[in-house]
Amino acid sequence: MSARRSIKRRKRDIISRRVGKVSPSGIRKFFDLLSTMEDAISLGVGEPDFATPWNISEAGISGIEKGYTMYTSNWGMPELRQELAGNLAERCGVEYDPDSELLITVGVSEGLDLAMRAILNPKDEIISPEPTYVSYESCTVLAEGVFVPVPTVVENQFRVKAADIEERITSRTKAILLGYPNNPTGAVMERADLEEIAGVAHRHNLLVISDEIYDQLVYGIRHTCFASLPDMKERTIFLGGFSKAYAMTGWRIGYVAASAEIIEAMTKIHQYTIMCVPIMAQMAAIEALKSGDAAVREMVADYDRRRRVMVKGLNAIGLSCFEPKGAFYAFPSVKATGLSSQDFAERLLLEERVAVVPGTAFGSSGEGYVRCCYATALEDIREALRRMRRFVQRHRL
Amino acid sequence: MKREVLEVLEKDAKVTLKQISAMTGLSVNQVRKTIDEAESDRVIVKYKTVINWRRLEEARVQALIEVRIQPQKDVGFDAIAERIYRFPEARSVYLVSGAYDLAVFVVARTEHDVAKFVSDKLASLESVQGTVTHFFLKPYKEDGVILEDHEKVRRQPLTL
After folding, report:
1. Hey, which CATH number is domain B60-138, 3.30.70.920, 3.30.565.10, 3.40.50.720, 3.40.50.2000?
2. Among A92, A177, A231, B109, who pairs with A209 as Cys (CB 3.0-4.6 Å)?
3. Does B97 touch chain A (CB under 8 A)?
4. Which residues of B touch A24 (CB under 8 A)?
5. pLDDT in tens, A323-332
6. How much is the ipTM here?
């Protein structure tokens, strides 16, 4: 009897409670379904449809050819950190010491995980605007923290208000986590909005984790780097990467810029779990920093055209959509159909073979919206809009 | 404004006024006016189509002919270049630096036609000192388009 009970308990305890608390990404289901359909158009994937610019790929390839196939420094190759420091100073207006304040990571994904594990004690709280990128809550929970979402609304262009953050601060609040330009809404923050948040961070002695992976993908505005605000560099864990701007998602490379103390702590985790980012990706990234600007400008100009077509098209078929000024997502309301986000996305995929992501995948304040990625060929965007028009006409209230 | 419209058109000449308007945020009228102006200023020279004739297995020969010429007093290379580019066989003609002077791109039905053009028309010109003809064996990329690269979806299914 007792033997049987102990077997039962062992079975139940295979997976840790911490991991048990994390739910799988809500986007997964759609891609499983999508991959079985032949003529489906996906507006679901959050990545550039461009291949990496050839000069960048070529730098990685020739690195391999020359035999650069070994480990690098845990922090990343010195030349890469040097280039990156120059790039951040020029582009973002913040000076970082390449020897102690930069860490090359396996994308922002790793940087985010490291940041959480480096700063959180159990039950510490992270305050973050919602709709939110799917990893934010999970990484918080995996580091035994508590995720405190701040709903944002379309009336304020999905920008988070400093007052709404301040309202949620408790004695356990450790950091504010920002992701602008935003995935999934495409929202951007004005400099003045960020300055107010800086004030909150200062008053309550909080850290700010700023995920700026989309910082180069902005349209008609200038992006403000959070760490560049007065007195914010020491408080900010600045996460960035190469995936989106340089179309390098598959290379898995990004970076963290922060104070030496924080970088030191994050590097401790990184060196025992990851060791270093693959050297070929680092060599490609050096080339991206040295001469990738023209390619970025061209891709941004292209996204901008598709953005206009997408937003205008969605509004024209009755899915009202505010003008997103960053990233490559449109976040239209589906309320005109009376369907929930989930139903809308599922039925649109089954009836018209267009994949979008339900807003609820990004938190409950995403209800009533879907995410449409416009990093997709223009002819596909036009066809997707034609199919969505049919769908909306059928389901309009 | 003009630049944005031209960039769109250079990629796809078939795009409609309405589509350009949606892509650039300009009104249809602004787009039309911009294009009309560019056409009358000969900023837009011509609308053409890139065709991969090999897929139709049409008889068609392309060649690059290097031409060395003796520049003429007062008019330099221009006069002799004009004598050459007036021939319809010469699709594109450039004055170039290096070991020869004019690069002449020729399209013809057969190799014999090209040879005839070179010997009868080019070589017989007084200022032409010599020619070297390179026949194109296989096209890889034309006007920025990789011809055999039509794999559309490289993206992998993923879960984030």
Report:
1. 3.30.70.920
2. A177
3. no
4. 159
5. 999 999 999 9
6. 0.75
